[in-house]
Write a structure and sequence with these properties.
Elements lengths: L1 H16 L1 H7 L3 H15 L3 H6 L7 H4 L5 H11 L6 H4 L1 H7 L8 E3 L5 H11 L1 E6 L9 E4 L6 H10 L2 E5 L5 H6 L7 E7 L5 E10 L14 E4 L11 E3 L4 E2 L17 H12 L7 E9 L2 E8 L4 H6 L14
Antiparallel strand pairs: 1-4, 2-3, 2-4, 5-6, 5-10, 6-7, 7-8, 8-9, 10-11
Length: 324
């Protein structure tokens, strides 16, 4: 019943999103709704996949190349040992086990006294609050010392919600030029093959919006695909609604041709992190670029297939050879 309600809501959302598609192709909504249902049954594509990967444009042979929502569940079950999932899904555990890749100072709210919390925020001036178990940037927000009126109220809230409190990462000036409000991270997907060789299969720069505290794709951010050899943005960025952006909408920065600083070392940094738990063979890493190195923000145990394929519109099912 739960899944039925979820997909019922998704198809209702799809119904609203189809207006420009129907107008462009001069076809009815019923036509596309039936086509979306067909793609769900045949390829495991959710209504969001249908729009995100532009399945309405594609023939079956092209649709079959995509890692859809249902296929992603299979990938996770085949490539990732569930025993290690909590090291990625729980932000406290992640920070502990990947401490060698983390420079920022952070605190676990339930372990802090009120005075310790106040002193930490005053010392850092700006911090990020993260609920432990949520994903897609949900529940994350910034606290700035000059905007806090009631420390006790905030302290009780973050302690009850088991939050992490982290210092705001000071990113590389070039990344800040894209959007200074958010830490603009590099999403890097790694895959470990049958021979235990680690591959970087895709990478993207994520740049936040003017109103968000995080760069996440689901919070108004824009994703820009990166050339794996050079670390250069080679194509227009895409937001969650499918709009394309040559210039970042918040800062006006030209993003086409934008080069990530110290790219080769960044790849080495991620590959070293992927070696930490080789039993977790498919991980999407979020890395901040600093003036003097890198900062691991998080590792996503359930790598978003949307960001993996929606930016370049290239299906990547064939990369996962054990699905064949």
């Amino acid at each position: 019943m739960k899944n039925y309600n979820k997909y019922s809501i998704a198809f209702k959302r799809l119904y609203k999103e189809l207006n420009p598609i129907c107008q462009y192709y001069n076809k009815s909504k019923v036509y596309f709704l039936f086509d979306a249902a067909y793609c769900y049954l045949k390829y495991g594509a959710s209504p969001h996949d249908y729009m995100n990967f532009e399945f309405y444009k594609l023939k079956d042979i092209e649709r079959n190349k995509f890692l859809t929502m249902k296929r992603t569940h299979r990938v996770e079950s085949i490539y990732n040992d569930k025993k290690y999932a909590d090291y990625f899904n729980n932000k406290y555990k992640f920070n502990m086990v990947f401490s060698d890749f983390i420079k920022r100072e952070w605190k676990y709210a339930p372990e802090l006294s009120l005075d310790e919390f106040i002193n930490f925020v005053k010392r850092k001036e700006k911090v990020i609050v993260k609920p432990l178990g949520l994903s897609s940037g949900k529940g994350i927000y910034a606290l700035e010392i000059n905007k806090i009126n009631n420390f006790m109220e905030i302290y009780q809230k973050i302690k009850t919600e088991n939050c992490l409190v982290e210092e705001f990462i000071k990113q590389h000036s070039k990344l800040m030029s894209a959007n200074e409000r958010t830490v603009n991270t590099i999403r890097v997907y790694t895959l470990i093959d049958k021979n235990d060789k680690i591959h970087i299969i895709f990478a993207a720069l994520r740049v936040g919006s003017a109103t968000a505290d995080v760069d996440n794709f689901h919070n108004g951010g824009v994703g820009y695909p990166l050339d794996l050899h050079t670390g250069v943005v080679y194509k227009q960025g895409v937001d969650l609604k499918g709009n394309t952006h040559t210039y970042h909408p918040s800062s006006g920065t030209l993003m086409l041709g934008f080069k990530i600083p110290n790219w080769q070392n960044l790849k080495g940094f991620v590959l070293n992190a992927a070696r930490k738990f080789p039993q977790s063979r498919y991980i999407a890493w979020d890395v901040a670029v600093l003036e003097d190195g890198f900062e691991m923000v998080e590792g996503n145990y359930n790598g978003d297939p949307g960001l993996l394929q929606a930016l370049d519109k290239v299906g990547k099912k064939e990369i996962f050879t054990e699905l064949r």
